[in-house]
Structure prediction request, 222 residues.
Amino acid sequence: MAVILGISGSPRKGATEFAVQEALRETEKVPGIETIYWSVRGKKIGYCVHCDACIRRNSMCIIQDDLQELEALILKADGFIIGSPVYDMNITAQLAAVFNRLRPMYLVHPGHLQNKVGAALSTGGTRHGGQEMANLAIINYYLMHEMLVSGGLGGCYNGGTVWTRDNKKDGVLEDAPGLDTIKRLGMGVAEAVMVTEHGRAKWEEMKKDLGLIEDKSPLRDH
Ligand SMILES: Cc1cc2nc3c(=O)[nH]c(=O)nc-3n(C[C@H](O)[C@H](O)[C@H](O)COP(=O)(O)O)c2cc1C
Prediction:
């Protein structure tokens, strides 16, 4: 089975939670895919304080809170759909904190995220309120971790973009074109995950035959 992890960066039960779950439901239409959902809602997540303990100790973040449960899920995932409400044309502070705190992934689990598929979606109260900007923040996080990005099937551009009019789940359901991008994002990710899962197995064989050395280069330095 391939596992797709959906993450909502919204602190409430609203549009983003519904949109991420809707995208996950779409991926589940592909046999061989199972999904996990995780949200920042109700979670205790501290900020990165740049103590650099992770770098010195070669460990994940030493702050003990609800982030550890997410780390465990990330290690199980073959694909990611991360969604955020648009806050000031960007992702939420909660989601940014999650990203910051996951900084040492490259040290502790080198290559783990490499070539895994990630996709972004966002929900904004305004039609053009910064959804594409919020998606970019998520996409940049994927790129930083050597991941591959799916923007969804044609017409989604850089991911799912919903205009909610601040109306939570009903806002998503009332924005038919936005809801369409969520579904097409889900299907695009499912397809990309299946392709990469098969390609990864083949590539591992080829790497052995070619005698290629594992990339543990200093380029992994921050
Ligand atoms: C602090 C804050 C900032 C916001 N900034 C924006 C914004 O820049 N653009 C926008 O379209 N909507 C903005 N919104 C509205 C939310 O993005 C919108 O209601 C979203 O769908 C909420 O998602 P949720 O129901 O999952 O929490 C903002 C809301 C809050 C609370």
